[in-house]
Design goal:
homopentamer; mainly beta; OB fold (Dihydrolipoamide Acetyltransferase, E2P)
């Protein structure tokens, strides 16, 4: 899984039928300090993540292992909202601080 | 899924039998402002996407989760045509504007 | 799928039993003008592609969705020989010309 | 599989139900000398790896081939703790030395 | 599949139970001339490859399509030892020469 920040949303009316009802979140990868860096990706939302939240997303066939994405042409899913992470024993990101 | 623009088509007469009837779209990834950047990829079309449209495509085994691509040697599929997307609360792309 | 050119072959006598009878093609990715660029990859041949031909190849589990590669440890397959492609309405490659 | 070092942990209370009970390790890839380099990734822990340990992790659908990750939206798993590795006949990393 | 050279081995005693008995080879990708370049990866050995040999390895779910790796958290497998390869009609690597 990769750490990313929810930076926006993507809207599509004309899509594969099975994708109806799924919310598309626009994510951008973050570095270990929580700063946006690296690429952006669009992921289905399986946990009700909101704008600005730090999340974990899974890709590939693993992205279909949720009730919402099962058997759908979906290759990325937000499967966790991050509370905090630490590196070398130091808290590098904590939800609610410096978002 | 990744955001991309339909920039062309690929024609092939000699191909895996199961791929007959599939339309191959040539896509190029776009940045958050909708400008072409990054690599190109060839994807099967599952939604009737047209030239110049912004789309979402899925890769890997997820690309086979449509009626058109099921059990075929296809590793990328256009599964949604994008109406618009927003980043940090600002509309960055809207279909019909500045295409 | 990705566009590539057949630049050579790889020979192996000692290999996974299930791989016997498969031809290994050496491919190099091409840019939108058909010039070799980017990385090389080895793919099984499912369509009888020849040296110098432009092809499409699929990777991952999709590479096993052909009769020749089913249930084999093969993660890339040439599944189409390209006749031509166009970008922005212009033919960029046509088989038989400037090969 | 890739060689990586456990550099931290990620905590999430709001996540896909099936992910409960899994420990998320923050990994950073290492070069052949064991020095941190390259990207970071978050992987589920299947072997009880501790902070600072060198591990092997698997990605994609292979990351779901453990009892702990089966059928879960998990695309990376630590499946081995590394004792040592050698390159060109020379021990480059040995657990317990120069950690 | 990708061309690589066996440059070493990785030893692990504490690992996923299903991984017992598998040999972990340390590989480094090679360029078309057979020179080491690009990244390193750890792959299970399905063909008895030895130090210094040129091999082909497969990744992802395809890496589990061997008797030795079936249903195991293994995402890369050496499935062929290379005898030779040619590029543009010229032998670029031949086993036993200039190893």
């Amino acid at each position: 899984m990769l750490l990313a920040k929810v930076i926006g949303t993507v809207v599509s009316t004309r899509k594969e039928k099975s994708m109806e009802g799924l919310k598309f979140l626009l994510l951008r990868q973050v570095d270990l300090d929580g700063k946006e860096s690296g690429g952006h990706i669009v992921a289905a939302d399986a946990v009700g993540a909101g704008f600005g939240e730090m999340v974990l997303y899974a890709t590939g066939s693993s992205a279909r292992q949720t009730v919402m994405t099962d058997k759908r042409p979906c290759d990325a899913v937000v499967m966790a909202i991050v509370d905090n992470w630490e590196v070398d024993g130091e808290i590098k990101y904590k939800k609610g601080e410096s978002d």
